[in-house]
Amino acid sequence: MQETILRAWKNPIADRPVRAWLFTVARNLVVDQARARKSRPQETGDEALAVIPADDELDKAVESWAIADALASLRPDHREVLLAVYYGGQSVKEAAESLGIPPGTVKSRTYYALRALKLALEERGLAP
User: Fold this and answer.
1) Same domain? 7 vs 35
2) In the chain, which ranges are continuous DSSP H helix?
3) Is 16 a domain residue?
4) What pLDDT is attached to residue 17?
5) pLDDT digits (tens, 9 = 90+) for 47-92
6) How far is the C-alpha of 51 from the C-alpha of 69, rounded, in Å?
7) pLDDT by residue (tens digit) across 35-45?
8) Residues 58 and 118 both lie in one domain
């Protein structure tokens, strides 16, 4: 009904019978709407929406890609220390043994790797 009135307002109808024209416009709108409904695929319900990840999951995925990209931009020795200590959950002593470097080197590389990672994340707009 609103679309019919809107079309009557947009198109002056002084030279034709108003009532018949309004009925024709309303009928054509109903037919167009029915045809449009038939041309679209049938709605499936909420099951299809369950497959699509939620917004927060998409944000997490994009953020993890950016973090992986920032880690990839680090020097290899910095990256391997961060992966051992933070992602591997190793202590400084364990990381030193697995990487074959002194514990003091693990500590200093971790410090400088974190600074470089923070800078890389800031460049990508992720660090506070």
Assistant:
1) yes
2) 2-10, 18-39, 47-51, 55-72, 76-82, 92-99, 103-123
3) yes
4) 74
5) 666 666 666 677 777 788 888 888 999 999 999 999 999 889 999 9
6) 27
7) 887 777 666 66
8) yes
16 conformational bin, left if phi > 0, alpha if psi -120 to 50, beta if neither: beta
Q: Which domain CATH number covers 70?
A: 1.10.10.10
Q: Strand, helix or coil at 16?
A: coil
| Cβ-based neighbours of 57, under 8 Å, separated by 6 or more | none
Query: Does residue 88 sit in the same domain as residue 61?
Result: yes
* Cβ atoms 126, 62 nearer than 8 A: no
Are residues 57 and 81 both part of a single domain? yes
Domain hosting residue 79, numbered range: 53-123
